[in-house]
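QUALITY CONTROL LOG
STEP: pairwise intake check
CHECKER ROLE: data steward
CRITERIA: each record must contain a sequence immediately followed by its structure tokens, with no blank fields

ENTRY 1 OF 2
RESULT FIELD BELOW
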Amino acid sequence: MAAKTRVYLAGDFGAESGRVMAGLFDGRTLSLEEVHRFPNEPVRLPDGLHWDVLRLFHELKNGLRAAIRRYGAATVSVGVDTWGVDFGLLDRRGALLGNPWHYRDARTEGVMETAFRRVPREEIYRRTGIQFMPLNTLYQLYAMVRARDPHLEIASALLFMPDLFHYWLTGRRANEWTIATTSQCMDPNRRRWARALLQALQIPTRLFGEIIEPATALGPLRSDVAEDIGARHLNVVAAAGHDTACAVVGAPLSGQDEAYISSGTWSLMGVEWPHPVINDDSLACNFTNEGGAFGMTRLLKNIMGLWIVQECRRAWKAAGEDLDYATLTAMAAKATPFAALVDVGDPIFFHPGGMPERIARHCRATRQKPPADKATTVRAVLEGLALTYRRTLQDLERLTGTPIRRIHITGGGSQNDLLNQFTADATGRPVSAGPVEATAAGNILLQLIADGRLAGREEARALVRRSFPAKTFEPRDTASWDAAAARFNELHARRT
């Protein structure tokens, strides 16, 4: 490591695993090194599905300790990003009230429809601009209201997952903008909590605190944490709390006519837009307006991503056949094309467990023959994803009035060359894949801005392009995908 290299640390938590990544900046290029990786497995308790948040914080500190040993005084700061919508509740002393719920817990089933009887669906969208999903914080909280959960009575603050980790690192309570906007509890136009909506659903508004912008310096580590990891010089920065917001910062976008897909357990497809798009058309398409860095809006669609393949692999492993993702993808490449057209947006795929049988039930319900084997199953899911991307791209172009000329795929899913090629073929657009670690890169880019090493968005994106070359996939067999898309749309009514 060169003497002038500065090191920034990203605590990056996904739905399957967490890691601490180091970003090494030499003044011209950024390189990433993995310091510590650990599984992120939910825990099922008698009352439901929870995150093992104490273990996650322990592993975060293990990663920071390892980074300090490796890089020493060159380390500058750390920022944490996570998945969206989930949260912890604190009492008046600042103590955590129970393990945070997992967004796939079944307690929110049917809660959206109940909430609509108090506040109409159209009114909730007008006030928040957020896509309707039962996992949203708004419905998690309303489920607690309906259950008369005593935690709501004694809680004094709500912190989303990255906010909670930052609080434990520094002692400062705040809600970072990008993660707060995933909740469906915020007004994106006024950039404040949608308190009238919360009151209408009897959700205590006292829980919602100070909103801070991405790249906000939170201060040094608490003395006990600093002593524990052996670093009194490390600062904490609220880069962008939502992992997708970080991934968009880390995508090599060069204009509003380029779309992104942050590809992993979820696929989040959209554009970086200067303002929220909240109208009847965006409601009909169920698009979301989440906060982004640099004052931008992430106009996007949450799409069930590689979760379905992940769950299939888990089921097959439990049955005694442990196949890695590379093997499954190679098998899928040789399977029969378009044997079944799977709509990945079907709610049947949301909950864990029995995924191959869920796919078979979905196919029978849509009068299709279920996939005959593992290879065809995986291929059908990947083709269904690509066809969903095609439909989402068409919606994006209509909502923004801007033709999309290129798609950037980032994240772990960008390593799946078969899905990348399917996406290019299905959409008829060139696809640029990478960086794989766009989330960690975006987190660190925002820390560089907080440290005064980068001036803003343009310098950050230029650094991404210099540091992480992309792989390009050009459209090929578009005619067969056009025919498949016509059949796909006939089989599956547009989901909202």
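ENTRY 2 OF 2
RESULT FIELD BELOW
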Amino acid sequence: TWKMTSPSNFATESGHWYAPDGTPAYEVPYADPSKGFRPTTLRDAKKLGLFPSVTGIIRLAAAPGLERWKQEQVLMAALTLSRNEGESDADFISRIYRDSQEQGKKAAALGTAIHGAVESYYQGNSYLAEFKPHVDAVTQAIKERFGEQQWSAEKSFASPHGFGCKIDLIASGIVIDYKSKEFGPENLPKPYDENLMQLAANAIAAGLTTVRTANVFISRNHPGLVHLVEHSADDMARGWKMFEALLQFWKAKNA
């Protein structure tokens, strides 16, 4: 058996597992039931016949945009930190690296909070007032592009191909994924291959053959700024082809 709980206040499919019926299987019980539950592992998944998440599959490919961002955080920490008197090179480098990781954790925490606020809105729940500019901008952009829809937020699916996912927003023939990033009006983000793969795999898992897909990028440092990018059918065909190759690699690697 397994347990559908989330390690944070808001849903995220990173590193998760799914039952063949689409039920999230985030945790399994300890051998000693009195200890409660623990995160599901690959070994558990094999034993229980669980499917890996879309993001878990996509992580097998290089993510140059993410790696560059991590490098920039290290460089920024090196530029802003002062060296302590008598501090060795090794200690200073270690302190620079720790500081850069802290910046990454702060960015991730803010991104999770923004994502959670948008999720809460579409689920009809309350959210912190500080995130209203983000939520308002997202909902306006989506409404302008897709009109009035009956949206379902954070709905989970599993595909007979052997993977599962949670979809940020889904309506009749529409799949949307939103992500927070640092950007301004002068440097609007462009989708990466992983964005195409995620949306294509999500659409396949949801059983949609004719589908409109879009990324909504939410600015972390300019509250109220969003950038919606709708993808073409050719984009989705390419995204699925890339994802399918990674899925076969994952299966071969973890057989």
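INTAKE CHECK: passed for both entries
DESCRIPTIVE NOTE, ENTRY 2: Confidence is low (pLDDT under 50) at residues 1-14.
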